[in-house]
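User: Thanks for the earlier help. One more: V-type proton ATPase subunit a. Can you show the sequence and predicted structure together?

Assistant: Of course, both are below.
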Amino acid sequence: MEYIDNLPSMDLMRSEKMTLVQLIIPVESAHRAVSYLGQLGLLQFRDLNDDKSPFQRTFVNQVKRCAEMSRKLRFFKDQIHKAGLILSPNPASQPDIELEELEMQLADHEHELIEMNANSDKLQQTYNELLEFKMVLQKAGDFLVSSGGHAAAQETELDENIPINDDYADSASLLEQEMRPGPSNQSGVRFISGIICKSKVLRFERMLFRTTRGNMLFNQAQADDQIMDPVSNETVEKTVFVVFFSGEQARTKILKICEAFGANCYPVPEDTTKRRQITREVLSRLSELETTLEAGLRHRDKALTSIGFHLTKWMTVVSREKAVYDSLNMLNFDVTKKCLVGEGWCPIFAKTKIQEALQRATFDSNSQIGVIFHVMDSIESPPTYFRTNHFTNPYQEIVDAYGVAKYQEANPAVYTIITFPFLFAVMFGDWGHGICLLLGALYLVSREKKLGSQKLGSFMEMLFGGRYVLLLMSLFSIYCGLIYNEFFSVPFHIFGNSAYKCRDATCSDSRSIGLIKYRDAYPFGVDPSWRGSRSELPFLNSLKMKMSILFGLAQMNLGIILSYFNARYFSNSIDIKYQFVPQMIFLNSLFGYLSILIITKWCTGSQADLYHVMIYMFLSPLEDLGENQLFWGQGVLQVILLLLALIAVPWMLFPKPFILKRLHTERFQGRTYGILGSSDMYNDEEPDSARQQHHEDFNFSEVFVHQMIHAIEFVLGAVSNTASYLRLWALSLAHSELSTVFYEKVLLLAWGYDNIIIRLVGLAVFAFATAFILLMMETLSAFLHALRLHWVEFQNKFYHGDGYKFKPFSFATLPDDDD
């Protein structure tokens, strides 16, 4: 035991030792001190104002200002994206800017942009109206010219009955005259011209027909140009229409329908000369507006480019300032109102760095009083912090997805780094498919810096984050594929010749009978002669099933051994004597014995039926084994192991609750005292712990039921978990058989035809099936099953996972877009 205690500690095996510290910071240096701590990223503040709402905190006004500045910056970013501009990847290296000055700059830029947008929208609306007017003049003029004979006859009749007003204002342009409502055509055939969205034309015409009861003539023509919708910024196809009608009531109805359908009506003079003159005026004003709009857009793009050059840095400054004030809101003022008091967790190794940062903040802020930093005692459980790198972080995330380790609890990620990709490879073993995965993993690893600086999609980001998991999974898949001797389901004589040959010439074609062993076994992996033989499936099924049991028992034993190291680390001798020992005895008396039988049968070549041995070990333990006996004394050993397994069940169930009850009674009757400040002072003890922190009433029935549930769960779990590891055999078999089907029934079948098209189609189908079914779906399936084996079968033997993660205040972890 002393040797184990003297072993050097493993970095990832236990979380970093944490300590609770208190900071007393003068007001004048508080902002700078918290800012420096954010750059360091090694202190997690405790919220001392948890009982206050966000609007009751000290620095709520500063937080609101930062939120308002963030809104303005998001507005600038949206405007830059709408304009089709690109943010500067390398922000301008301007000197540090004060928050008040930045706030004024952002307000000025926002006011300028809003004003430019408003002017641009007005000009664009005017431009769209003139463009529509131009198209209406052109198309409606064609309609009027085509109906000239009928119109001339009506004009003659109108001239005889209706006087014409000759006092028209000559000073106004023809365009302005036409835009004014005129008293002409009070009776007879009249028309209304305008433009409407193409998608509404059919409904519009139907409504006009029903409203006027068919007393109208509707002409339409497709507009030559598309109109930009100022609301959606999308081009819209429109149709020019002219409605001929008679009567003032019909005119009123038609105008209301036009308004309801969003149609824009424009007056078109019947005189050709006037139409031409108005068209010239419209074209002239359109040309002027185009020039004005282009100049406005250039000015706006120039302003947005100037903003975009500094936008990234401004967003960083504002998000950091907001984070600093959010952290300051977690601090309290002391009684003098001159200092801020804060508490937080930090790793022990970081105390020196934090003190240096606080001293630097005091010096830079010219404060006369330094920051007071001292360590506090706490019975609260500290957060869990593991120092990981790019390689170990994804494995730690796999473990944390199940539950964050309790403080100083044994970390499964240490073993998951190897066991997870290995169990995946046992199910996925094919060195051809493994090479494909390896190429993908090497691509992600080689472009790590470039891809890490880019914004990736959700799937690609997940794949990139697990690039080193994928790398090890591919390497282990190649290794297991070489053992299975499968390259896209095809065996190869890589490590020499087969150990089998044909008895005579008659068996050379069948490959199913007549093979005899003529030399030593194939040196590495499965002999290629097994492929295609009559006994291929029975042999591989037997091999993989027994191998799955061996791997499962080894991993479950590892989990129970880790529970011993947990109990030893926390000085919990009761768990060692009454949980670890009986669990090891029970599991290995049954399934450890089965593993010994499997290995013995492999080594001796015996034909013993292991199913019969294990079943009758329980049904008839004293029965003679006969031909199923593998070694001398096996029957006596079975009886001993069965008795040990039966003894282990009450061993797990009864002693621990009664011992806990006795210890509790002695502790509070003054006969013995618990050790204060032990190594377990930071742990949240379970109800069955021998060292309760809180002086609560001891509920024996609750502790007994809790222990009974644990014992029953382990006994039943020993059987179900061992059976669960058979998924290694099942998925390996499924992967191998799918590969064989695609190879033989698709590729080889297509290659049997003397037709290049059929061969190419067969090759394409084989490549598609390999890529999407075997390399994507099967990879995901094997990944999820390996995840299940680690979370349920392995980690439930020792891992509580009821801690909480260390989340220090750090600028590096701030989101890119402060929402």
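User: Great, one quick takeaway?

Assistant: The longest strand covers residues 18-26.
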